[in-house]
Every structure is written in structure tokens, then in C-alpha cells.
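Q: What structure does this chain adopt?
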Amino acid sequence: MEPRIDLFANEIGARFGKRFANAGQVVERSALPKSTQELVSLRASQINGCGWCIDMHTKEAAAAGETQARLHLVAAWRESTVFTEAERAALALAEEGTRLADAATGVSDETWHRVREHYDDDQVAALVCLVALINAANRLAVIVHQKGGSYEPGMFAAYAGA
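A:
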């Protein structure tokens, strides 16, 4: 499948993309650990089947020092031993926040409580915003058939002018 439109080359898409990338910079510059940001973005992207975002966040995580073992186990984080309790709470929030239609309650009180045990208010705000942003990014890329494979670390940050 070929991409339906190059949003980066379209005037409206490019203007929106720049603002979207700048919103992402707010989260990236927050106190939420970079590794957690990438793991959460990767997990939501896996659930949504977004090749572009899986490519991006796998490469960004690796460039930031994330291990291949952890990256390979994100999809099966519950059945692995390589994630901290804080990361497990963030991954649970990412999954529940991504699969809103699958559960009448959305994010469970149990998951919210676990997140609050490990993250302060600013980190929680960043985490919630990140889950919303990555889900929006997944939808943009999947709708236009943006394919994974060509992303280079730092590419999107450079696009934002960061």
C-alpha cells in the first residue's frame, strides 16, 4: 500500500504536524523518564498497528540507550521481568488508555492507583498527555498509510524545530 497523502508536504498537514510536534516536546521535556515515554509510545503504537510510530519509538528508545531485550518484550510486558513497577503501571495506563472502547470503565481505578504510587502530578500529567498524543499520532499515520522503516532518530524533533 502506498501512502495516501504526504502530510509533511501538504501545507495544512505540515502546519498541524509542526504544532503537534511542539505539543510532544512539552511531554518530552517533562520529568517523566525518557525510557518510560518511549516504552509507552511503543506499546500504544503496537496496539494500534502503527508501523511508522513503532519504527520511530523503537529507534528513539534505542538511541536513548534502551536495550533490545526490553524493546522486544514491550508487547509482552506482563510476562517479562525486565520492567520496573513504575514502568508496568505506565504500560498498563497506556494499554487501557488506548483501548478505551474495550472497557466501559476506560482506565481502571486499580491502574490509576498504581500510576499515582509511582509518579508525581507533573509526571502523571505528562503520561496522560503522552497517551493522548501517541494515540492521535497513530491514527494520523494509519489513516494515510504512513509506513515504518525510514525513520531516523531525532527526525521528528528536528521537524518541530526543537
